[in-house]
Amino acid sequence: MSEGKVKGKIRFRKVGIAVLVVAGMTLAAGAGAYAATKMSLFVNGQKSKVEPVSIKGTTYVPIRAVGEMLGANVNYNASLNSVTITSKSFDAPLGDAGKEAVGSVNGVAITKNQLYNAMIALGGQQTLDNLIQDELVKQEADKQGIVISSSDVEAEIARIKKQFPSEADFENALQQSGMTVEDLMKQTPTQLRIRKILEKRVNVTDAEVKQYFEANKAEYDQPEQVRASHILVATKAEADEIEKQLKAGADFAKLAQAKSLDTGSKAAGGDLGYFGKGAMVPEFEKAAFALKVGELSEPVKSDYGYHVIKVTDHKDAKPATLEEKKAEIREQLAQQRVSALSADWLAELKAKAQITNALQGK
Q1: In the chain, where are the structural domains located?
Q2: Which residues make Cβ contacts (< 8 Å) with residue 362, sequence separation at least 6?
Q3: Is the CB of residue 127 less than 8 Å from the CB of residue 116?
Q4: pLDDT score for 240
Q5: 52 in Cβ contact with 41 (< 8 Å)
C-alpha cells in the first residue's frame, strides 16, 4: 500500500471520527426526546453486527464500531467519563532501513519507504502475483525434471521472430507492447516450462493436422514476395543526391543508417524484409515489384516522403503442401491447446500450494 493512500485514509479517519464524536454528544443530550428506529449496517457488502439507529431522519452509528471499522482504537475511561480514539500505527515496510534517503527535493528527503510504497501502488500487486506464478511453475518443472537452458530461450526468441516479416516488424511489435527483447527473454523461461509440462497432456493427430491445413490452405500458400531496402528522405533533391551517390558506388546500408528517416529500418541498413502485395503503400509497392533483383529505383514519392528503393530478392508465388507445413501446424495446434489448458492448470497449482501474499487487497 502506498504512503499516499495510507495518509489519505488517516485524514479520512480524523474527519470521520470527529463528526461521529459530535453526533454522539448530540445523541447523548437528546436521545430521550425522540424514538429511535433500529437499522441494519452493511460494510463492504457484509452485514455488520452493529445496529445503527435513525432519529428524525439522521443515522447514528456507535463510535467504537465505526472507529474500529476504520482501523482506530476506541477506549472509554469511566473514571474520567471520556472516550479516547487513536489511529492504529502503520508499520513502515522496510523498518528503520526504510528511513534512508534515496533522493531529496530542496533539502526534503525522499525515503526508501516512500519509494517502496510508490512502486507497490504502481504495480506491486501484479508484480508479486507474477513472481508467485513464476516460482510455482519453476517448482513444478523441477519436480518433473524439466530444465530450460539459455539455448532453449534463444531458440524460442528466434521462433517468435520468424512470425514477423522482418526484424524491424519484430522490434516494432515489442515497442507497441511496451517491451524490450530483454523483457521477452525474462518471460520466456516460464512460458517454456508451462509448455513442456502441459504438452504431455496434448495430443494432435495427423487427421487434425490435415483437416486444419485444408481449411486454412490459403494462409500457407506463399504469395509473390520481394525483399527490399529503402532510404527515406524528406525532399526530392535529397533523394536525387542519394540516388547519385548509390550509382557512383556508395554503400546502400551505410547511407540508409546515416540518412534514412525511417527509424524502423535504418538500423538494419534500410532492410524491410520480405513483403507481398498489399503490405506497402501503393506507390512503394508498384515500384518495388517492378524492379529486378539488384536494381535501384528512381526517387518514389509517397505520403511519407521520397524513397530510394533497392530490391535484394524475389520469391514467386508457390502453393503450400501438407508435407511442408504439417510440423508447423502440429506445433501451432499443440500451443493453442496448451494455452487453453494453462489457466485452469495454474489455478489448480495455486490451490494446492501454500502461498502468502502480504499485498493482497492493498
Answers
A1: 3-87, 96-122, 128-214+322-362, 222-315
A2: 1, 120, 124, 125
A3: no
A4: 96
A5: yes
Helix or strand or coil: residue 186?
helix
The C-alpha atoms of residue 155 and residue 167 are separated, in whole angstroms, by 15
Which of 127-144 are b and which e, b meaning 16 or more Cβ less than 10 Å from the residue's Cβ? eeeeeebeebbeebbeee
Q: How many CB atoms lie within 10 A of CB 198?
A: 18
- Please state, in angstroms and rounded to a whole number, the distance separating the CA atoms of residues 39 and 32: 18
Residue 165 · residue 223 · CB < 8 Å: no
pLDDT at 199 over 80: yes
Q: What is the pLDDT of residues 18-55, one digit of tens each?
A: 222 233 333 333 333 334 566 776 655 566 677 777 76
- 127 — pLDDT class (breaks 50, 70, 90): confident
The contacts of residue 167 (CB under 8 Å, 6+ apart) are 161, 268, 271, 273
Structure-block grid coordinates of residue 14: 480524523
- Domain 222-315 fold is Chitinase A; domain 3 (3.10.50)
Instruction: Give dist(CA 229, CA 237) in Å, integer.
Output: 20
Choice among 21-25, 41-45, 114-118, 190-194 with the minimum mean pLDDT: 21-25
Cell numbers found for residue 267 = 538500423
Q: Tell me the pLDDT of the chain averaged across its residues.
A: 81
CATH topology of domain 128-214+322-362: Triger factor/SurA peptide-binding fold (1.10.4030)
166 in Cβ contact with 301 (< 8 Å): no
DSSP string, 60-84: E--HHHHHHHTTEEEEEETTTTEEE
The pLDDT value recorded for residue 8 is: 30
